[in-house]
Amino acid sequence: MLGSSDQVRDHFFNPRNGGALEGANAVGEAGSLSAGHALRLMLRVNPETEVIEEARFQSFGGFPAIAAGSVLTELVQGKSVAEARLLTGADIAQALGGLPEDQMQSPAMGAQALAAALAVFTGEPLPVPQPVTPLTVSPRQSFVPIAPTHPSQPRVAREVPLSPAEEAAEVARILEQMRAVFRADGGDVELMEFSGSRVQVHLTGACKGCQMASLTLGGLQKRIADALGRPIRVIPVAKS
Questions:
Q1: DSSP states of 98-135 as a string?
Q2: Are residues 189 and 99 in the same domain?
Q3: C-alpha 102: how far from its chain's center?
């Protein structure tokens, strides 16, 4: 990160709006996990005013991809769909204080994800994906999963709460069912601890350190909250 702007460093070390967005009605993706960098942009757009009320992102890649996803969410929140359409990769790069040519793939990827999300909202054909240049990853480069930032609320609260033993059994059952989803992505998930409203899990394989795993963690969190009838938060942890 030597030579990076203050804005890039700030958005990398303090990413805004990371994680899955419940209730998103516009989701766009760009890039490729196999190429080493990918971005998912999730928007909640008011259908009456067409104003983007909330935006979140999940990214896989180096620090430019994380910074670009973070600043993009700030750029689009509060804008109308028509205004958001005008944002370009150059606008994203400018908001980050400028990027060298070899890092411009990340803001371009952000613009592609935005265009795809807006097309989903308006019902238009998805834009043709642009080729992604494979990313050469340094052995020192690390990817940190973005956990769901707040607990999931259940669809319906239980009139008669489950006993602690029944809750533990339900969490274990759901986690076992969801392992197939994680394994399909080339990884796995293991229950480490369940206490109060916190479910701690350990990710392995391709899921380990992959920010795209956050969406699956969000789905796991929501299923557990609905089953237990109370707010639950799933947190990825390392084995001691």
A1: ---GGGTHHHHHHHHHHHHHHHHHHTPPPPPPPP-PPP
A2: no
A3: 24
Residues of the domain holding 118? 6-122
Question: Which two three-digit tokens encode residue 128?
Answer: 């043709």
The 10 Å CB-count burial string (b at 16+, else e) for 149-173 is eebbebeeeeeeeeeeeebeebbee
Q: Does residue 160 surpass a pLDDT of 70?
A: yes
CATH number at residue 211: 3.30.300.130
Q: Establish if 192 belongs to a structural domain.
A: yes
Enter the pTM of the model: 0.56
Looking at 122, 155, 185, the residue that finishes a domain is 122
Q: Give the angle subtended at the CA of 182 by the CAs of 133 and 38, to the nearest 5°.
A: 20
Summarised one tens digit per residue, pLDDT across range 79-92 is: 999 999 999 988 99
Helices and strands (H and E) in the chain: how many: 7, 6
86 and 10 both lie in a single domain:
yes
Q: How confident is the model at residue 151 (pLDDT cuts 50, 70, 90)?
A: confident
Q: Which pLDDT score, from 0 to 100, does residue 204 have?
A: 80
CA distances to 229, 232, 237 from 153, rounded to whole Å, are 8, 7, 22
User: Are residues 180 and 230 part of one domain?
Assistant: yes
